[in-house]
Amino acid sequence: MTLKYKSVHFKDYQLCTDKHDPFIEDEAIWIVHLNNGIKIYQDDGRRGIPEYSAWIRLGNYIRESGCQIVGFDLKFGSHLVSVFGSKNAYYFSRGVESSFGNKETTHFYIIGSIDDFAQPTFKCKWYIVPALEIIKTVEKITDKATPPRLIYNNI
Known about the structure:
1 helix, disordered N terminus, mainly beta, 4-stranded antiparallel beta sheet, 5-stranded antiparallel beta sheet
C-alpha cells in the first residue's frame, strides 16, 4: 500500500527537523515521529518565525499534509522518554506552578492522547521540566480538548 500525501512541504511550516540544531541543544523538548519518516523537534520561540509554538505549526502541517503522528517522545540532554506510539489524537500543553512567597516557579509539560473519542475523558500526564518525570496524572474531558492543544491524526 502506497501512502499519498498532499504536496505540502514541512519546511513551509517552519518545523525543525535537525536533531543537532543548536537552538534546541540545551532545552527540554518533545520529538514527534511522522509516518513519512520525518522527526519534528520542538523549537518554540525561535527568532524569525511568526508562530511561537512549534506544536501549533505541527498541527497545521498534520491537518494540511495528510501525515500522521506515529510516535511522541520527550528529551532533555541525553535523557529520552518515549511517551506514546500511534494514537488517534495527541494533547500537549504547558503548565506553570508557583506559590505565594516562593521565588521558584515549576514548569510542566502536560501530555495526553485519545484512542477512543466515545470515552468521556482521557488521561494527561504532568511531566516536570526539565527532569521529565511524571508528577501527576489528571483526567480531561474529551469534548473540551480542542485544537490547538489537540492534534488529530488524519484517521
